[in-house]
Amino acid sequence: MARIGNYFLLGIALLSTIACSDEILPKKPVSTSINKILPLGASRVEGARPEFESYRYELWKDLVDNGWTFDYIGTQTDEASYPIHNGKSFDPDHEGRGGWTSGDILDQIAKWLEYTGSPDIVLFSSPGGNDALQGLPYNQTLSHINSIIDVLQNANPNVTIIIEKLAPAHSSYMSGELSDYFYQLQQDVAFVAKNKTTASSRVITADMCTGFTDQMLADDVHYNAAGAAFIADRYYEVLVTILEG
Questions:
Q1: Over the stretch 187-207, which tens digit does the pLDDT of each residue have?
Q2: Residue 217: inside a domain, yes or no?
Q3: Which helix (H) or strand (E) holds 93?
Q4: Residue 46 maps to which CATH number?
Q5: Is residue 166 within 8 Å of residue 141, measured between CB atoms?
Q6: pLDDT of residue 22
Q7: In which band, very low, low, confident or very high, does the pLDDT at 15 lie, cut at 50, 70 and 90?
């Protein structure tokens, strides 16, 4: 997402219209991995090489290098080109949708899970980020985030959900209502995680905001290579404590 302007707002409107329409989803084999990982979110998950990066490739390399058995799942397929790593081809599956809000995701996630099967682990990226950019009501956003977690736990009562304290936008952009919105989300996901954790399903926060700098952004909100590696490392720190051996 470039700086807010007429072109950006037009793109958001178009993406929101697409989000509310019926999709024709590709048929993919249901994963049988012991660690089925669903990368869930918007453009920070989707990526758009070479303009900006997703964390998924860097995290995939970390997991491969350390010998973990896992499988990314999702109805979306990343068509960008990624180098072979340790003799393996990148796993391009994900559930990232550029421009989608928490409400858009909530409307469709049950349908996506019907196609992919239930994940063991969800990486819930930048929850409410596009809601903030669009100035949507905060309480509505928080309600949607809680409801998305409900859908995931209903599909798999043993799911582990890693929810981000989202990384900020560029400092020149983080002012006024947008800054307040991001800050409140960063604080409230900790309460969401605590309240949504059950005896069989953990909801864990990953701190993506502390230590994140402007130098990790390709534009106002998306990651460059350094930012993607930073986010991947933060995810990996949590994943090694919960992955099945």
A1: 999 999 999 999 999 999 999
A2: yes
A3: strand 93-96
A4: 3.40.50.1110
A5: no
A6: 65
A7: very low
Is-contact 227 185, C-beta < 8 A?
no
- Total number of domains constituting the chain: 1
In a domain, 130, yes or no: yes
The token pair at 132 is 């903030």
Strand partners, 88: 85
pTM: 0.92
The answer to whether residue 102 sits within a structural domain is: yes
Sequence-distant (6+) residues with CB within 8 A of 26 are 75, 77
Please check whether residue 69 is in contact with residue 85, taking contact to mean a CB–CB distance below 8 angstroms. no
**Runs of H (alpha helix) within the chain:** 6-19, 43-46, 56-65, 102-116, 129-134, 138-155, 176-196, 225-239
Confidence of residue 41 (pLDDT cuts 50, 70, 90): very high
The more confident residue out of 210 and 28 is 210
Query: Range of 150's domain?
Result: 35-239
- 27, part of any domain: no
